[in-house]
Amino acid sequence: MRSALELFEELNAVDESTRIEAKRASELGKSVMQTVIAFANEPGLNGGYLLLGADWSINDKGDTVYRPAGLPDPDKVQRDLASQCASMLSVTLRPEMQLETVDGHTVLVVYVPEADVTHKPVYLKATGLPRGAYRRIGSTDQHCVDEDLWVLRGESQPSHGPDTSVLPDARLDDFDPAAIAAYRRDRGRINPQAEELAYGDDDMLEALGALRRVDGALRPTLAGIVLFGKPLALRRLLPMVLIDYIRVPGNEWVEDPDNRFQSIDIRKPLLLALPQAEASIIDELPKGFRLPEGQLQSVQEPILPRKVIREALANAAMHRSYTVHSPTQIIRFSNRIEVRNVGYSLKAPEQLGSPGSRLRNPVIAAVLHDLHLAEAKGTGIRAMRRLAAEAGLTAPEFHSDRQANEFKLTLFLHNLLTEDDHAWLRGFAGGAVSGDEAKALIYARETGAVDNSACRDFCGLDTLAASHLLRRLRDRGLLDKEGSGSGTYYVLAQADAAPPEPPAQLALDIETEPSPEASGTEVPSPDTNSNTPACNPELATLPPELATLLATLKGRTQEDDLRQAIVRLCAWAPLTVDQLATLLGKSRDYLRNKHLIPMVGSGRLRFRYPESAKHPHQAYVAPLDSTTKP
User: Fold this and answer.
1) 200, 249, 334, 375: which has the fewest C-beta neighbours closer than 10 Å?
2) How do beta strands 140-143 and 134-137 pair?
3) 199 sits in which H/E element
4) How far apart, in whole angstroms, are the C-alpha atoms of residue 199 and residue 216?
């Protein structure tokens, strides 16, 4: 068991801590039990530590500094916690506890071991499942949802998972013969003796999980339609199950009606869609020359290995949530490729790449594994990292956002440290940086921000080492810190980086009735002594029709009306959550959690900077066709 002094030292060394939670004496309520449950539940975490009787503040560098503050009655806290762990939970927990004195203050160190899988999920009896169970996600305790429960139980798949469910309106003639033929051809090439190849089509599809027998009749499953469904059947049954390949000029997403991005919509059965998506990516990649051993003629190959692309696409197909209506997006920037799918990772982000797999769609995954479109279970991410390194490219970055229910994989198209990068570093940092420090600075320049998770990905560091590296660059004046706790990220120091101008913060006072003489409602100029940046000229006036719309939204508003107003505002100009809250007269947190995040998930809105969800100047934009979406 670790000492209180060690725990304080680690908390003060990192921006976030997965295995340590500090609590003030005033916070010893239900949040303590939530953390206890999360530590006991989280697979592979090996438990965690509660440090009770701590306090913290923000120093002049923006770091959170933890210190002992003491408990008013430490013996009572210890007794109460032991009693609650024995009586309030679905199983009795016996955490280890010890009182220690640090700088004259008594604190309580509590170690909660991970519960045996046969006892999971641990949950509050009074609340029940799934809401009474919690998982440890980063440095936060998150309510469980149904998908979490079978993960906590150690099941490789739920007894009736989403992709095994029968689609009510699906028919046997919804299957595409070309997709079935493609399966037989590719499976026969890999394993000519595969038993299912000897079956008829219906028996083969039933063996694969594409059909299920219900009341004696064969019915198509979700997996069956996704894998083998005709395009018209996909449009009828699963209208947003498609792959969008989007070509964006430059390094960042910019909505420009005069210079639209190029987009290809791929709506086919997955066994035909994945090869087309792979070919679309490879066709636009720069090619390199290679002379195979023993050959006299060189061959051209894409700079990004085909197997990395194939694994990235298979990963999105296997792990996306097909119950949420949102397409898989492949966004091709000039310097990277992003593959985005709805559905957060069921594995903790820090465990990505470790052996073992948590499958959201086991039937789909099994078919992709059999066809060698995906690596063996739990090895795909490790293979992508290895192949990228062998090709001399930057390691892929993986980002899972549980709140937005999104997973993003970024594949970089060049090594971060090119000659141009070295020249920039010499001018920016004087060249006196280590290899990992250089990677962090270049990454921040390329994507707009760098955080602990990204640093761990491309440097191969643990959380503590990545935090030390980023703070070291901050202390040298090369990075500026933004956010706090699990939301901490760093941007290039403003004085040297000359970043793009941030979107202006609106300071609007909308009139109830717009002036008929004015061409628009003018935005008052902010006080030059205030902290509000000067207003962007493109946001200087609000069109009369939008001013009229806002005037009709006073007070309580129907959800559909409010969301339609958000779309119209964001179609006019990229707007931050603060700008929208000001315009609509709504709480910032309410607007973000209740409306903006779901609207991004459904495709009605997009991030202005999709490559960095926590970008310091993040704003929302509406696709040009979003005003027609329900």
Assistant:
1) 200
2) antiparallel
3) none
4) 19
**CA 98 from centroid of its chain's CA atoms:** 37
Query: Which residue from 64, 63, 71 is spatially nearest to 107, judged by alpha carbons?
Result: 71
Question: Please, are residues 598 and 589 in contact by the beta-carbon 8 Å criterion?
Answer: no
Is the pLDDT reported for residue 550 higher than 80? yes
Region 125-132: mean pLDDT is 93
Residues in CB range of 132: below 8 A, 6 or more apart: 37, 90, 123, 124, 125, 126
Helix 362-370 and helix 177-190, axial crossing angle in degrees, nearest 10: 50
Cβ–Cβ < 8 Å for 169, 236:
yes
- Most confident option among 15-29, 218-232, 306-320: 218-232
H or E segment to which residue 534 belongs: none
Residues with Cβ within 8 Å of 529's Cβ and at least 6 positions away in sequence, in order, are: none
- How many angstroms separate the CA atoms of 277 and 268, rounded? 11
Report pLDDT for 15.
65
Question: Is the torsion defined by CA of 323, 613, 249, 281 positive or negative?
Answer: negative
Query: How much is the pTM?
Result: 0.62
Cβ–Cβ under 8 Å, residues 261 and 270 = no
- Is 490 within 8 Å of 474 (Cβ atoms)? yes
Give bridge partners of residue 404 from the DSSP assignment. none
Tens of pLDDT, residue by residue over 428-477, are 887 678 888 988 998 888 777 888 888 887 787 888 888 889 999 998 88
What architecture is domain 4-152?
A: 2-Layer Sandwich (3.30)
The domain 419-497 is placed in CATH, from the list 1.20.970.10, 1.10.10.10, 3.40.50.1450, 1.10.760.10, at: 1.10.10.10
No. of H helices and E strands in the chain? Answer: 22, 24
Same fold, 419-497 and 521-628: yes
CA 623 from chain center: how many Å? 21
Rounded Cα distance, 384 and 409, in Å = 11
Side-chain half-sphere CA neighbours of 349 within 13 A: 26
Burial of 258 (0-12, 13-18, 19+ CB in 10 A): exposed
What does 19-42 look like in DSSP terms, one character per residue?
Answer: SEEEE-GGG-SHHHHHHHHHHHHS
Task: Using alpha carbons, select from 243, 262, 387 the residue that is nearest to residue 327.
Answer: 243
Provide the pairing of β-strand 606-607 with 479-482.
unpaired
Beta strands in 541-599 (DSSP E): 541-542
CATH ID of 243-262+286-291+299-363+372-412, from 3.20.20.70, 3.30.565.60, 3.40.390.10, 2.60.40.1120 = 3.30.565.60
Q: 3-state SS of the chain: helix, strand, coil percent to 5?
A: 40, 20, 40
- pLDDT score recorded for residue 278: 94
- In the numeric block, the tokens 């109830």 are attached to 512
Would you say 593 and 564 are in contact if contact means Cβ atoms under 8 Å apart?
no
Query: Between these two residues, 243 and 488, which has the higher pLDDT value?
Result: 243
Angle at 215 between CA 214 and CA 216, to 5 degrees: 90
pLDDT beyond 90 at 418:
no
**To 10 degrees, the CA torsion angle through 370, 371, 375, 381?**
-120
| Amino acid identity, position 123 | Y
Burial-class residue 73 by CB neighbours within 10 Å (0-12, 13-18, 19+): exposed
DSSP character for 350?
G
Q: Is the pLDDT of residue 492 over 50?
A: yes
